[in-house]
Specification:
It is a single chain. The protein is an alpha/beta fold and 344 residues long. The chain folds into two domains: 4-139 and 255-310, D-Maltodextrin-Binding Protein, domain 2; 142-254 and 327-343, Periplasmic binding protein-like II (D-Maltodextrin-Binding Protein, domain 2, 3-Layer(aba) Sandwich), CATH 3.40.190.10. It contains eleven helices and eleven strands. Strands 1, 2, 3, 4, 5, 6, 7, 8, 9, 10 and 11 form an eleven-stranded mixed beta sheet that branches. Strand 1 (27-29), helix 2 (33-52) and strand 2 (59-60) form a beta-alpha-beta unit. Helix 6 (183-204) runs parallel beside helix 11. The protein starts with a helix and ends with a helix. The relative contact order is 0.18. Keywords: Signal. This is ABC transporter substrate-binding protein. It comes from Fundidesulfovibrio putealis.
């Protein structure tokens, strides 16, 4: 069996933008595609400022939305000294795995770095980690994009439970592409309504589509348009909405998929500018407004009644969220297939 070093080296050889330095990076950054370039510009500015002082900032930012990355097996690492000083990522991926949490998070390898002024949305949703390890500096909020014309007289859904009603059979498009899906949506539905609720939702879902495709097709009469699209706020706001298109923030909150970082306790002082970039600098990026920055020192562009739906830290601690997420992906696909076969 290959060692972790050999595995990462073989992946590095396949990747076009792979780091060639064998030493751990100061910053490993995975970011949502809509803000990735702006975040890279901000990090590059930090690196340039450090270079002017005779200091080096080692950074790895995979630039393809789906690309081969030598850091993919990083969760298998056993030595904390071989981890990047700051790991920034999105969703409930490898850095929420039970083995990674037990090995590095619970023992206190990482310490949270929240901003001085906390966004009320983050505070009310309970997003700050009470144990002080993860820093959720923003979220991808999943909301409803509703075509009232395509609903044909049906009421627009106002909360997540509404989406389980059989009146919406075949009218919902779910954010997803390939093996990927909106993890926060499935986790929240499962937590609140169990497998029966997930099955009811799956029966109503006509198909999966990439966020950009849903935004492009919204309001049209083509076969790919949906009456109700579960979509990230950024993409819903990116389109010119005709009169029959409504953006609906669920009453019980937009399902919140985390944008977070883990900063080594031992490196907080040396990399204070890097952690500050996430804690407060992220909110200065115009497009970040739709990713709900944790920093509350700037005005919010979101609706006054906007709320976030977070699975909760007790749920995070009591479950292996990464494994549960992958299990729900499989269950959801099986439920959709069963519903389609039943309706054929």
């Amino acid at each position: 069996m290959k060692s972790l070093d050999d595995l990462m080296r073989s992946i590095r050889d396949m990747a076009d933008d792979a780091p060639q330095d064998a030493a751990p990076a100061d910053l490993l950054l995975y970011a949502p595609c809509p803000v990735k370039l702006a975040m890279k510009d901000g990090v590059d500015a930090l690196a340039t400022a450090r270079q002017a002082r005779g200091e080096r900032l080692s950074v790895h930012i995979p630039m393809g939305c789906t690309s081969v990355d030598p850091y993919d097996p990083l969760h298998m690492e056993t030595d904390p000294d071989r981890l990047p000083a700051v790991i920034a990522s999105i969703g409930f991926g490898d850095f929420w795995r039970k083995t990674f949490v037990e090995r590095f998070v619970d023992p206190g390898v990482f310490t949270a770095c929240p901003p001085q002024v906390l966004s009320p949305l983050h505070r009310d949703a309970g997003l700050p980690d009470p144990e002080g390890h993860y820093t959720i500096y923003g979220v991808t909020p999943y909301i409803f994009l509703v075509d009232t014309r395509a609903l044909g007289g049906l009421p627009a859904p106002g909360c997540w439970e509404d989406l389980l009603h059989p009146r919406y059979r075949g009218k919902i498009l779910m954010c997803g592409d390939g093996d990927d899906m909106a993890d926060a949506v499935l986790l929240s539905l499962y937590k609140d309504f169990g497998l029966d609720g997930m099955a009811a939702f799956a029966a109503n879902v006509r198909g999966l589509a990439h966020s950009s495709a849903m935004a492009k097709d919204a309001g049209g009469s083509g076969p790919d348009a949906g009456a109700i699209s579960i979509i990230p706020c950024f993409f819903a706001q990116s389109i010119r909405q005709p009169a029959h298109i409504r953006t609906v923030w669920p009453r019980d909150g937009a399902a919140a998929s985390p944008l977070y970082f883990l900063a080594k306790t031992s490196e907080r002082e040396r990399l204070a500018d890097v952690t500050a970039f996430f804690s407060t600098g992220f909110s200065a990026i115009p497009s970040a407004a739709w990713f709900v920055p944790m920093d509350g020192s700037r005005p919010s562009a979101l609706p006054e009644d906007a709320r976030l739906k977070w699975v909760g830290w007790d749920y995070v601690r009591d479950n292996d969220l990464n494994t549960l997420r992958d299990t729900l992906y499989r269950e959801f696909r099986a439920m959709r297939a069963a519903a389609q076969a039943e309706g054929a």
